[in-house]
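Bug report

Summary: C-alpha cells for Adenylosuccinate lyase differ between web form and batch submission.
Environment: batch mode, default settings.
Steps: 1) Submit the sequence below via batch. 2) Compare with the web form result.

Sequence submitted:
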Amino acid sequence: MVGMRSLADATPPIALGALDGRYRGAVAPLVDHLSEAALNRQRVHVEVEWLIHLTATGAVPGVRPLTDAEVAKLRDIPAQFDTVDIVELAEIERETVHDVKAVEYYLKRRLAAIVGDHDAVGLAELIHFGCTSEDINNLSYALMVQGATQHVWLLKAIALVDQIAAMARELADVPLLAHTHGQPATPTTMGKELAVSAHRLRRQLRRIAGADYLGKINGATGTYGAHVAAVPSTDWITVSKTFVESLGLRWNPLTTQIESHDWQAELYADIARFNRVLHNVATDMWTYISMGYFAQSRGQGTVGSSTMPHKVNPIRFENAEANLEVSNALLDVLATTLVTSRLQRDLTDSSMQRNIGTAYGHSVLAIDNVGRGLAGLDAAPAVMAADLDANWEVLGEPIQSAMRALGAQGVPGMEQPYERLKELTRGRRITEADLREFVRGLGLPADVEERFLQMTPATYVGKAPQLVDYLDN
C-alpha cells in the first residue's frame, strides 16, 4: 500500500492465513503431520524404509544386508529431521527442481557416513530403486493423514463428544420444551437432546476410526515393469505388499501411476459429515443460549460487545460454525477431485493434497471452540420450566392419544379425539385450569382422568431420561 511499510518483508515472516497466525496454538499439533516439512520427513522415512526392505528381503541379489547398527542410523535420519534438514532439502530442490529427487540426493549424501564410502557406491543406487515419485508420495501422504487423524483429530473429537455425553447425563432429567419448526412441541429433556447429538457424532467417529489407509509401490504405471526388467527373479508383488504393510498401511494391488486416492475421499466425506453434525450442535446451542436455556459463565475475561456491557456473545459457537464451513468446503473439494486423474496421472492431486492440513486445521479449531463454548455454559432449569408452564397446550397430544387407545378398546364417548383437542388448543394458549376443566368433561375412565389431571408439561417427557443411558451401548 502506498506510503506504508511492506509487511511481506517482516522478520520473522508474518502468517498469511489465520491458522498459522491468530489460531496457531489450537492447530499446532497438526504441523507434525500435515505441513510441507512433515511431508518431506515422511518422504525421507519411506525412502529409508524402502532401502532397508530391499536389503533385508534380498530383493536385489548380491547386495549385502545392512547391519542392525546401520539400520538404526538410517532410521535416525527421519527421527532427527529438523529445521537444518528442511533448509538443506530446500537448497537441493532449487537445483533439482523436483521435490522427491531432492530427497533421494539428500539421503545419498548421508549414506557414506553410515555404511562407508565403498559400500555407499552400490547401496546408494537402491535408494528410490524402481520408484516413481508417486510411489513415495502416496505412502507419505497415507502416513501423514493416518497420523493426523489418529493422533490429533480423533483424540480431540473423541474428547469433545465425551464432553457432550457428560452434559447429557448431567441434564438427563431436566425437562425441556421441544420445538419443531420453531413451534412449541412435545416436551423432552435437555439431556436426551444432547444425547442425540453425542450419539450421532459417535457413529461418525466409529467410521473414521475404522478408516483404511491404502498405499502402493509398483512403478511408473503400476506394472512393476522396471523392477521385473532389472531383476526378473524377484517376486516384486510380494516385496511391494510386505513393504506397504510394514508401514502400517493397506496394500493396493491395482493402480495406475498413482494410488487412486479413493480411501482419502471416503475419509474426508466421513470427517465432513462429523463436521456437519457438529455444526448442527453449534447452531442448536446458540439457539438454546438465545432462549435463555443456558447462561454463559461470566468472569472468563471475555468482552461480549464493544459497546453493550451487558452482553456475553456466544462467539465460540459462531466461530465453530464458520470454521466447520471452511473445513467442509475443502474436504468436499478434496473428496470430489482426488478420485479423478487423467489416464495414468496428472498433477492436480499434488496441489490439492497440500490443502489437507488446512481442512483438518479448521475442523480442529472448530472442535476446540465448541468444547470451550460448552465449558462456559450453565444450564438454566428455571427458564426451561417457565417455558413449559406457559405451554399447557402441548398436553393435547397425550390426551388425544389416550382417547384413541380407549376408543379402539370400545370405550364410548371417545370419538374424534384429534379434532376435539385441535379445537381446544390450536392457535391459542390455554391455562392449566382450561386443560383440567377440559379433561374432566371428556368422560375418561377414572384412572385415566386422574393420570391426566396430575400430568404437567414438565412431567410429559416419556422415556427421555432413560434414553440417555443408551449412550453407553
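Above is the batch result. After comparison, the two runs are identical; trailing whitespace caused the diff. The CA atoms of residues 330 and 355 lie 7 Å apart. The chain has three domains: 29-129, 134-212+253-298+313-384, 392-456.
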